[in-house]
């Protein structure tokens, strides 16, 4: 495939492979034609471009990332690969998170995501101990700078035991409201969690904010904050979108209890985002012992109950995950292997496209006529071909034109790592 000579007017991508679900149709992969006219999707017409079955997807949506943490690994590596090791290392590195440092690393991450074909990102931002005063203005600047290339949302990140109706948490929530973000919380079993959540949801409702939780990021079966969140949403009738991420512990609970919790999650209308690569890296890590569990949540059982399930990148080259490049094809590939998405339906590609778009309330009409011709094109013609190779020769079209897919060089960050 070579799109250096792609027509600039009206043209048709002849004989492409597209998942039927992305066209609102039943079935698996289908062969079809996609027209482009004036940078938008249209009916076939104009000059023909033979595609020989190349697979076409809409640009990706990555709804759970940490752009503020990204790429600190060279100066702040995880000492033992554990969750606690990651947490303490990141907290220590906060001293280096000047606006300039955060901006440079965010820019690097956004360049990478854009080159891989991502058009929308939600990022969590560490906000405690005054960090919100530095990171949130940087985020707002990046959102403006990247408008038209990557749509950005931000979510505050703070642990539930630090929640307060006043003080720093209220200041953070006010900043979130002013910048147009999402109110976030990390939940784990603490005394009085239900009361904390009742006050948290009350604050979010009064400020007209949607919410996004890090939930039960542990393999401890006694951690049931997902259940408490669902119960509180049902009790309060909280109407804005509620996202719950990770939800690892439900995979280790007794079957009947876990299924009952998932029934509550579905009834409460919660939106789930699974982070398979990070959870596989951190969970069930014990020195000198091979891991027994994968860390991924119960995505099949959730989806079967009508719960919206998405997959996302999570961390990138930081103490919580040493790898990754904000490549949503890698996320989908690894999710397929880790969570056995194959042989279980034809529409899991929605989990990195249409589903996170709906969950985060973006306007992105996908592959419908009149939508921007924002496409990712792969030489692969079927799923096994797509997932067998990295697809580093993919082509990304934005408004019908091929972008420069050159990835940023890690050396660009060397000065930041040396001055830490």
From TrEMBL:
PANTHER family: CYTOSINE DEAMINASE (PTHR32027). NCBIfam families: PRK07583.1 (NF005759). It comes from Primorskyibacter flagellatus. GO terms for molecular function: cytosine deaminase activity; isoguanine deaminase activity. It comes from the Bacteria. Pfam families: Amidohydro_3 (PF07969). Gene3D superfamilies: Metal-dependent hydrolases, Urease, subunit C, domain 1. This is Amidohydrolase. GO terms for biological process: cytosine catabolic process.
């Amino acid at each position: 495939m070579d799109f250096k000579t792609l027509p600039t007017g009206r043209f048709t991508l002849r004989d492409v492979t597209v998942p039927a679900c992305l066209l609102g149709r039943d079935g698996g992969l289908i062969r079809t034609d996609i027209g482009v006219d004036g940078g938008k999707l249209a009916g076939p017409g104009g000059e023909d471009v033979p595609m020989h079955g190349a697979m076409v997807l809409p640009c990706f949506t990555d709804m759970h990332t940490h752009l503020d943490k990204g790429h600190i690994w060279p100066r702040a590596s995880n000492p033992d690969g554990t969750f606690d090791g990651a947490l303490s290392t990141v907290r220590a590195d906060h001293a280096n998170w000047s606006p300039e440092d955060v901006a440079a690393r965010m820019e690097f991450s956004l360049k990478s995501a854009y080159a891989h074909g991502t058009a929308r990102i939600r990022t969590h931002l560490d906000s405690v101990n005054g960090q919100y005063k530095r990171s949130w203005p940087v985020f707002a600047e990046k959102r403006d700078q990247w408008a038209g290339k990557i749509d950005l949302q931000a979510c505050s990140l703070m642990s539930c035991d630090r929640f307060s109706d006043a003080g720093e948490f209220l200041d953070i929530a006010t900043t979130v409201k002013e910048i147009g973000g999402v109110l976030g919380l990390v939940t784990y079993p603490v005394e009085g969690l239900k009361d904390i959540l009742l006050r948290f949801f009350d604050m979010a409702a009064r400020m007209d904010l949607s919410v996004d939780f890090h939930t039960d990021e542990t393999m401890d079966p006694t951690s049931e904050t997902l259940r408490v969140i669902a119960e509180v949403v049902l009790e309060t009738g909280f109407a804005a979108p509620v996202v719950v991420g990770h939800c690892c512990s439900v995979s280790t609970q007794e079957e009947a209890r876990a299924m009952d919790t998932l029934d509550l999650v579905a009834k409460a209308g919660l939106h789930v985002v699974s982070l398979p690569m990070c959870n596989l890296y951190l969970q069930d890590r014990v020195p000198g012992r091979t891991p027994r569990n994968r860390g991924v949540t119960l995505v099949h059982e959730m989806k079967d109950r009508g719960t919206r399930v998405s997959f996302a990148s999570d961390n990138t080259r930081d103490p919580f995950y040493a790898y990754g490049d904000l490549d949503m094809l890698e996320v989908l590939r690894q999710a397929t292997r880790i969570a056995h998405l194959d042989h279980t339906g034809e529409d899991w590609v929605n989990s990195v496209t249409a589903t996170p778009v709906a969950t985060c309330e973006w306007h992105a009409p996908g592959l419908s006529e009149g939508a921007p011709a924002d496409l990712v094109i792969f030489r692969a013609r079927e799923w096994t071909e797509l997932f067998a190779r990295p697809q580093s020769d993919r082509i990304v079209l934005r408004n019908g034109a091929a972008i420069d897919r050159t990835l940023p060089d890690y050396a660009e960050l060397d000065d930041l790592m040396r001055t830490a």
